[in-house]
Amino acid sequence: MKVHGIVLSTMNIGEYDKRVVLLTKEKGKMVIFARGARKMNSPFTAACETFVYGEFTVYEGKNYNLNAVVIEDLFSELRGDLHTLYMGFYFCEMAEYFTVEGSADVDMLNTLYVGLCTLRRGQMRLSLVQAVYEIKMVALFGLMMETFSCVACGALEGEEEHVLTHFQSEKGGALCDKCSKGLAAVMPMGASTLYTLQYIISAPLTRLFSFDVKDEVERELIKISRDYQRVHVNHTFKSLEFLELLV
Ligand SMILES: [Zn+2]
Q1: Within 13 Å of residue 156, how many CA atoms lie on the same side as its CB?
Q2: What are 82-96's pLDDT values in tens digits?
Q3: Residue 43 covered by a domain
Q4: Are 128 and 148 in contact (CB under 8 A)?
Q5: Are residues 15 and 133 in the same domain?
Q6: Does residue 158 lie within any of the structural domains?
Q7: 229 and 206 share a domain?
Q8: Residue 14 belongs to domain spanning
Q9: Same domain for 36 and 136?
């Protein structure tokens, strides 16, 4: 069987082997075993590293075992800078956490691939790429934040003078000026931040990582993304912890 995908993580097994987690187009997340991948001159050595994108031929026994690989992209440029490298690891760790074995999720695979390409290009601030990736992946996971109407009264932006001015993670998204009054744990949200959230949720992947915002908007986006994840995902990502130590 041939599958196409990205290596999300690897683990050494025994003396010479590796356990590799792939995110594939055909079968979603897959765990495969690469026998002898750590032996000198093994054809699998280069392929069994995080970020590798390629075509993997596997045979199915008790487990999936790697038989051959055609590497299409190593993403080796990500290894040139520690921040970029660990951001890449974080993207892969999040994809691994959000996907299940045997259930194809092409949107998540494509978002990861485009996210890694964006990190490699290095034209967008890492902190902004991170916020965009997080908001998009959390939405693809099925926890999309509501940004087009008030989560309390349902009013659309601009409808009967309702303006979406706040965000509350517990309620799942934006609140209008009237509903946010007197509520605890609401975060103020500027109009540009609201528009940027709507853009991230609805933009096609080809344009997802191609915009810039002012520092103030970026700060609000990051704050909203962090808080929303804390409430709805509630998982500690190891590579993110490491990234935060680097700053
Ligand atoms: Zn409202």
Answers
A1: 1
A2: 999 999 999 999 999
A3: yes
A4: no
A5: no
A6: no
A7: yes
A8: 2-74
A9: no
Ligand 1 centroid, distance to 157 Cα (angstroms): 9
We report the CATH number of the domain holding residue 98 as 1.20.1440
Q: Which of 175, 221, 176 is nearest to 195 (CA)?
A: 221
Residue 56 lies in a domain: yes
Token couple for 42? 């093994």
146 vs 155: CA distance, rounded Å: 12
Q: Are residues 114 and 229 in the same domain?
A: yes
pLDDT digits (tens, 9 = 90+) for 93-116: 999 999 999 888 899 999 999 999
Q: What is the pLDDT of residue 63?
A: 92
53 and 122 housed in the same domain: no
For ligand 1, the distance from its centroid to the CA atom of residue 143, given in whole angstroms, is 20
Question: Is the sign of the CA dihedral 59, 76, 15, 94 positive or negative?
Answer: negative
Residue 161 clears pLDDT 90, i.e. is over it: no
Span from the CA of 183 to the centroid of ligand 1 (angstroms): 12
> Residue 30: pLDDT above 80?
yes
Distance from the CA of 130 to the center of ligand 1, in angstroms?
A: 29
This prediction has a pTM of 0.95
